Request: fold
Amino acid sequence: MESIKKYIAEFIGSFVLVFFACGTAVAVGCNPDAGTGYLLTALAFGLVIVAMAYSIGNISGCHINPAVSIAMLVSKKMSVKDFAGYVIAQFAGSIAGAAALKAFAPAGSTLGSNGLYEGKILASIIIEIILTFVFVLAILGVTSKTENAGVAGIVIGLTLTLVHILGVQCTGASFNPARSFGPALLAGGESLECVWVFIVAPLVGGVLAALVYKFLASEKE
Reply:
């Protein structure tokens, strides 16, 4: 039952992330030439993480991101069984959030889905790996000490905002396979064709962050 509660919490968190953050992207737009819409989108993603961290963080740890979960798996902070359960819940929550968003989004909306940087696959992969690495590294660092528990959600939310400020203009900012899959699945077309980039690259970034942090922490010890 404890595991089920964690999976439900991850489902809810992923739903809220897609519905509110991607919904903000749909509402204000992400074109830097059109004003500050991309900044509002970056802030929305960060604020959702803060809200969810203090809502479901004590239940599931508030991963709501397979890249975070795989980093925890590599760091031996969660079991393979829980990893699978988390990822399934995260993808399901994302799809549900995208479906709810599509109900009132303008016709033809991409629902905040991601796109390749200037149409380049390799460049997009590199961008996503680097920014996911920074985000997950911050999570591993701030959650490594229990005394940081009170501020961890704020730090993580601000870090997500930071990487989005740059990432939104490049790839639409994924750093999260589940967050990317739901909108792409419901939007279809080009969004769905390239979604594999935003599934693979963040996972690679998450694994790299876990390995690097493990090395740095062991050196400190």
Notes: The CA atoms of residues 11 and 93 lie 4 Å apart. The longest helix spans residues 2-28.
